[in-house]
Amino acid sequence: MQPTGVADRIARQTLARRGAEYASEVRRLIDAAIEVMRQRGTTSRPRVSDIVAAAGLSNDAFYRHFASKDALVTAILEDGAERLGGYLAHRMAKEATAGGQVRQWVEGVLSQADQDIASTTLAVLWNGGSVGDGLAAGRHFASAPLAALLREPFAALGSADPELDASLAAHATLGRLSDCLWQRVTPAQEEVDHIVKFCLGAVTRRRGQSR
For the whole prediction, is pTM greater than 0.90? Predict the structure, then answer.
């Protein structure tokens, strides 16, 4: 028997409510895990039981969404990459020039070393180092998506290979960010300016080499 229009509509409403509830559970688990990681720093990694308790949820709720703690950590890394990417894109959109966009990108990345968020960023990086074979402790997890934001301004600046230049600039800047996080220092404005010049200079040099 084919479902009636009313039956189909009510079923879809039920699924929508359940989807919203599940999305809320996932958000609570992610936020709770980040907070527990921040509190523990780089001394110990939280257990599933610690995260569930902080979220005020059950083990059943956890395993409804994640097969393991590593799966949750992976989701946290993806969530962090999306948030940082959105933040950088918002900053860059305010700039009319390609050079200004590159500066906003660099300043936005290095702002993650500011004291108010550095401990959380470092803790997430450290916990991410235990996931799989591709995430080493201290290496930033968002290199590829963040590098993608630089391709267009680098192309506008005349880069002969915007994708490669963006990747190199991202690795250099994110590597310096990781150094600052582990050293518990905030880069001075002079250092930020130097990195901006380095990124812009790399584009110019590669363009010159291509002739």
Answer: no
